[in-house]
Amino acid sequence: MSGVLETLGGLYALEKLGNQGREIDSLNLELDGNHQQLDHARRDLAAASGSIAYYKRVNKELTEKVQLLQEVNEDLRVTLADWIVSQRAFRELAMKYGALAGKTPKEIDNESSAAEEAVLKNEAKMSASNNVDTCSRAKPYKDRLLVKLQKEKARQ
């Protein structure tokens, strides 16, 4: 009977060793999977670092462009404000000299509209440098300004 017990003990030990071998194989497979996941995570991290660097660079460039646009916008606003003040001062002066010539504000406004139309049509009488084609900033808007002026005339 001792032979049977020895055989049973040996079989039990072999079964235990087999179970341990399968468990080791299973753990090795799990470890390999974890290594693969770690490799993927490292590659993803490297790619993300590259993306972050890219977006930081793009963000910096956009910020610089926005600042430049804000500066240009501010300069344009100052130029426009200066132009508005100059036009109002010129209008004030025109009203003063018109009053000295015995004209009403309505007559002066009508003459002003006629002069504006002459400038837009490049028919200025006092100086050719007053014509719109001599002003590169106004020339592209010449047709639109002329249409606007004619609509205002039609409303009067």
Can you walk me through this structure?
83% of the residues lie in helices and 0% in strands. It is an all-alpha fold and 156 residues long. It has a domain at 103-156. The longest helix is centred in the N-terminal third of the chain and has 99 residues, at 2-100.
Brief synopsis:
With 156 residues, the chain is mostly helical. It has helices at 2-100, 105-120, 142-155. It contains three helices and no strands.
Q: Which descriptors apply to this entry?
A:
156 residues; mainly alpha
Structural class: mainly alpha
The end-to-end span amounts to 129 Å
Q: From the alpha carbons, calculate the radius of gyration and give it in angstroms.
A: 44 Å
Counting H and I runs of at least 4 residues, what is the number of helices? 3
Largest sheet: none
User: How would you sum up the global shape?
Assistant: rod-shaped
Residue-averaged pLDDT, rounded?
A: 85
> What is the ordering of alpha helices and beta strands?
HHH
Helix content: over 70%
- How much strand content do the residues show? under 5%
Low-confidence segments: none
Let me know the number of strands.
0
Question: What's the structural blueprint in terms of helices and strands?
Answer:
Elements: H1 2-100, H2 105-120, H3 142-155
Helix pairs in contact: 2-3
